[in-house]
Amino acid sequence: MPDPKFSKPWHGIPREEIHWNPTVLDDVCIGCGTCVTGCSRLVYRFDFDRKKPVVVDPLNCMVGCTTCANTCPANAIVFPPIDSVLALQGRAEVRHAVEDDLLARREVLASAFTVPHPDRIVTLSIAEKDLMTADVLRVVLAPVEAGECFCEFVPGQYIELWQPGSNHLSRSYSIANASHGDGRIELHLRQVVGGRFTGWAFDEMRVGDKLRARGPLGAFTLRSAPDVPLLFVAGGTGFAPIHALVEQQARFQPARDMVRRLQPPPRG
Ligand code: SF4
Ligand code: SF4
Asked: Which residue in 11, 32, 68, 105 has the most C-beta neighbors within 10 A?
C-alpha cells in the first residue's frame, strides 16, 4: 500500500497523475540490495529467492528523485525523462502551490542566517505601460526619488519586483535597456496563463503605481569583440537582455552594422 505520507499530492497535483518511479532491469541487476535498503520511502521490497528488488509502492517514490539509480552499481535502474517533471513545473498552479507552501511554512523554512545582500531595494514607479504584442507588455520603471535608483546597471542583469498589496514572492525580470544614468528600467513581461504577477500587471497595473524592486542582479555581460560577428538567438521576452546588450553596443560602436529581428514568442 502506498504510504499517504509519501504519496500525497505533489505541489497540488495528485500523485497518481505523475508517472515517476523506478524500473529495474532484471537482466542487468546483480541483486546487491542497495536500492532496497537505501530508499527511505519503502518503494522497493526484496525478493530473497530471486535476489532481486521489486517495485511494490511506486507512488511512494519522490517525484524527481533518482538516488537509487545513481547509487546502483550495475546501472540497472531507469526513470522516465526528467522533462515530464519539468513540464509540470511550467504550470502556473504548480508554481503557485510552491509559493503558497513557502509562505504558509515560513517560520519553519526561513533561513536562520542573515545573508548580507550586495544589491539594493528601491521604490520605482510605473512610467510607461504598453503592449508590444497581444501577450507581451512593455513597462518602463522610473525612480521615485532622484538618486534613489539603479542608476548604473549592466545590460544582461535583472531585477526582482514585488506586487504592491500582496504577500506573494518577488518575480524576476530581465532588464531590456542599457543604463542611461537616470535609473529608468524597461521590462518586457510575457503574460503567463494564470500567472499572479503578470495577471495583475496586464489587468490592474496603472501608470504611477509604485513597486518595490531589488537589484540589479546577475553578471551576464558581453565582452568587447570588435572584429567578430555576433549572432544573438532569442525568442519572445528572452530577447530582453539581448536588446539591452545590443543597445549598449550600438552606443559604443555606432558604425557597426546591426540587424535586429524580433519574433513573437512561441505559443503553446
Ligand atoms: S542497486 Fe542495482 S544492482 Fe543492486 S539490487 Fe538494486 S537494481 Fe539491483
Ligand atoms: S528515486 Fe528516491 S524515492 Fe524513488 S525509489 Fe529511488 S531512492 Fe526511493
From this structure: 68
Q: Output 241 or 223, whichever has higher pLDDT.
A: 241
Q: Which domains does the chain have, with CATH numbers?
A: 15-105 (3.30.70.20), 116-268 (2.40.30.10)
Q: How far is the CA of 77 from the centre of ligand 1 (A)?
A: 7
Sign of CA dihedral 204, 210, 214, 217: positive
Looking from the CA of residue 38, the nearest atom of ligand 1 is: 1
Give residue 236's Cα distance to chain centre. Answer: 16
Per-residue pLDDT tens digits for 115-154: 666 678 999 999 999 999 999 999 999 999 888 888 888 8
Phi, psi (degrees; rounded to nearest 5) at 197: -70, -50
Which is the closest atom of ligand 2 to the Cα of 44? 5
**Ligand closest to CA 41:** 2
